[in-house]
Write a structure and sequence with these properties.
The chain has 150 residues and is an all-alpha fold. It contains seven helices and no strands.
Length: 150
């Protein structure tokens, strides 16, 4: 039989904070469920029972408990990333278009025309972020597409 997983020792303040998150019910559902998955084992409930109550797998409960034991309350709050990438302002698009229409020799570069890779590399070297340069040159990769229409 495997050893029973235990939540690290929770002091009174942490216990009250967990109970407040679980009882409040407002805020992120993810935070509420994670707090519930930590609070129930701290009160003596075993992992399979917590998994049933939280409608999730035992492995997920173990992950949440382990993360809480290692990182504390920070592990309860979701860390969402992604979303729509930032858009260029009209001024930024005009600047990129101006560079793309210019001759590389004007910027002391040894080639006669821009390729998408060269333009992106140049934009990065000029201080544009890698993501910005890739997004600026990405639409150009389609056949017949013109560079940066603004």
């Amino acid at each position: 039989m495997t050893e029973r997983l235990r939540v690290r020792e929770i002091d009174d303040d942490e216990g009250r904070r967990l109970v407040r998150i679980v009882r409040r019910g407002s805020g992120s559902v993810v935070t509420w469920r994670r707090a519930q998955m930590v609070l129930l084992p701290a009160q003596g409930m075993d992992v399979p029972a917590v998994a049933k109550v939280a409608f999730t797998s035992e492995d997920r409960v173990r992950d949440v408990i382990g993360n809480f034991s290692a990182d504390g309350f920070g592990s309860l709050y979701p860390k969402y990333k992604g979303g729509h990438p930032p858009t260029f302002t009209l001024g930024q698009r005009r600047e990129i278009k101006k560079i793309a229409k210019s001759k590389p020799a004007r910027h002391d570069l040894p080639f006669s025309t821009w390729s998408l890779a060269r333009l992106a590399d140049f934009l990065v070297a000029e201080g544009w972020s890698t993501t910005s340069a890739t997004r600026a040159c990405g639409p150009c990769s389609a056949p017949g597409a013109s560079p940066i229409s603004a």
